[in-house]
Amino acid sequence: MWTSKCAAANILEKRIPEDALLNFTELSKKYGHPAEEHNVVTEDGYILKLFRIPGESKRPIFIMHGLGDSADSYILRGYQSLTITLANEGYDVWLGNNRGNKYSRKHLYLNPDKDNKFWQFSFHEIGIYDLPAIIDFILNKTKSYKMDVIAHSQGTTAFFALLATKPEYNGKINVLAALGPVAFLGNLSPPISTIAITGPLINQILITMNVEEIAANETAARELQTRVCSLGFIGSNFCRFGLIFPLFGFDPESLEAEFASIALAHFPAGLSRKCFVHYDQLFYSRRFSSYDYGPSMNLKLYKTFSSPDYDLKKVTARIALYLGRNDPFAKIKDAALLKEILPNVVEFKIIDSNKWTHVDFAWANDMDKYLFPLIFDILKQYKFEPGLLKPAK
Question: Which amino acids are annotated catalytic?
Fold first, then answer.
C-alpha cells in the first residue's frame, strides 16, 4: 500500500513542469540572466525581497506586481517574459515583492504566523511604505536620480496612492507604464462584481475564522493545486477553465494549458484580508480613497468621518495607461475616468486584441506582439541618461 502511494506521488512529481518548481533566482539563471537578491527594510519594519538583473545600459527600470502576486509572474515566460526581454535589451531590471507575499514574509519584530498585526495592511501601506523604500534603495544603489517603472494591477494602485500622498516621489519617476491600471472600480462585471457585492459577507466570515492571511503560497492546498494542474490535458484545462478564466478573463489562445500549470504553481503568492477589503470599499464607494475604518476611527485618523480621497491631481509623473478589452478588473470606462483626473497622462492605449485579459499583461504568450512594442516605444520616447545629477537642459 505504501509502495503504491509513493509510486503515485513520483508519477505526479514527474508530470510537474520544471519551471513550476523553480523560484525567481533559479528561473533567472536558467534563462541566462542570474539575478541578485537584496533585502529592503521599510520604515515600519517589513523586510522586502528585491531582485535585480544588472544591465549594460545602467538605466534602472522597476517592475511591481499585482494583487496576491510576486516577481515570479514576470519571468515565468522564460525567454519571452518581460524580465528577460528587458534584460536582453540592456536595462538594469529590478523586481519588487510587496509585504506579505512569499518572498517578503518577514518583519523586524512581527511573526506572520503568530502576529495578526503583521497582516494589517492594504495597497495603501504598500504604496506609502514599500514603494518609497524600494525606490530609494534602487536609486541609491544605481546612483541614478530617477527610474522607469512598469506596474501591473495593484502595483498601479499602490503607485497612485504613493504619488498622491508623497508627491515628492513624482520627481523620481521618469515614466510609469501602468498595465491594467486599477483605481476606480465602478464598472465591474460578473463574476467579479458578484464577488465584490458579497465582499462584506466574505470579510465577516474571514474575521470570524480569524483569517488575516489569504492564499498563502506554501500550504497543502497550494501543493494540491500544483499537482492537479499538472495532470496532463484534463488537469491543466480544469485549472485554466475553472480557476483562471472565470476570474481574470477568457483567452485560451494566449494562455495555453501547459503554461497554466506553471503559472498556478506560483500564483497566488499571498495577500492580506485588508487588501481584499480595501478594494471592495472602492467598489462600493465608487471613489479612489484611503481605507475606511468607520466613522469614529476615521475621525481619529483622518479628522473626518469618511475616508479621504487620494488627490490624483498631485500625481504629476508621466503616466502611460494600457488596457485590455477583456479585462474584468481594469475596465476601460474606469480607466477613462482616471485619465481625465491625472494631470500628466502621456499615453492611453487599448491593447490591439479583443481577448486581452488582466493576467495577459504578465502571462500571455503573445506579449511580444501586443504589449512589448508599446512598452519599448514609451521608454524610447522618454529616454534619459542615468546618473546622480539631472542633465543640463
Answer: 153, 358
Q: How far, in Å, are 25, 58, 113, 224, 333 from residue 53 at the CA level?
A: 10, 11, 31, 32, 36
Non-local CB neighbours of 230 within 8 Å, separated by 6+ positions: 12, 15, 16, 17, 20, 236, 261, 265
Phi–psi pair at 78, nearest 5 degrees: 60, -125
Give the cell for residue 63.
Answer: 517592475
Q: Domain extents for the chain? A: 22-188+308-381
Residue 40: its H or E element: strand 36-41
What count of Cα atoms within 13 Å lies in the side-chain half-sphere of residue 176?
Answer: 30
HEC secondary structure over 92-125: EEEECCCCCCCCCCEECCCCCCCCHHHHCCCHHH
Instruction: Write down the pTM of the prediction.
Output: 0.93
Q: Given its phi and psi angles, is residue 195 left (phi above 0), alpha (psi -120 to 50 degrees) or beta?
A: alpha
φ and ψ of 386, to 5 deg: -65, 150
| Separation between Cα atoms, residue 322 and residue 288, nearest integer Å | 19
Residue spans of alpha helices (H) in the chain: 2-15, 18-21, 24-30, 82-88, 123-125, 131-142, 154-165, 192-197, 199-208, 220-229, 232-239, 245-248, 257-266, 273-285, 295-302, 332-341, 360-363, 367-370, 372-381
Tens of pLDDT, residues 273-332: 999 999 999 999 999 999 999 999 999 999 999 999 999 999 999 999 999 999 999 999
DSSP string, 178-242: EES--S--TT--TTHHHHHHTHHHHHHHHHHTT--EES-SSSHHHHHHHHHHTSHHHHHHHHIII
Q: 22-188+308-381 falls under which CATH superfamily? A: Alpha/Beta hydrolase fold, catalytic domain (3.40.50.1820)
Give the separation between CA 181 and CA 76, rounded to whole angstroms. 21
What gap in Å lies between CA 289 and CA 227, rounded to an integer? 40
User: pLDDT for 10-65, tens place per residue?
Assistant: 434 557 889 999 999 999 999 999 999 999 999 999 999 999 999 888 899 999 99
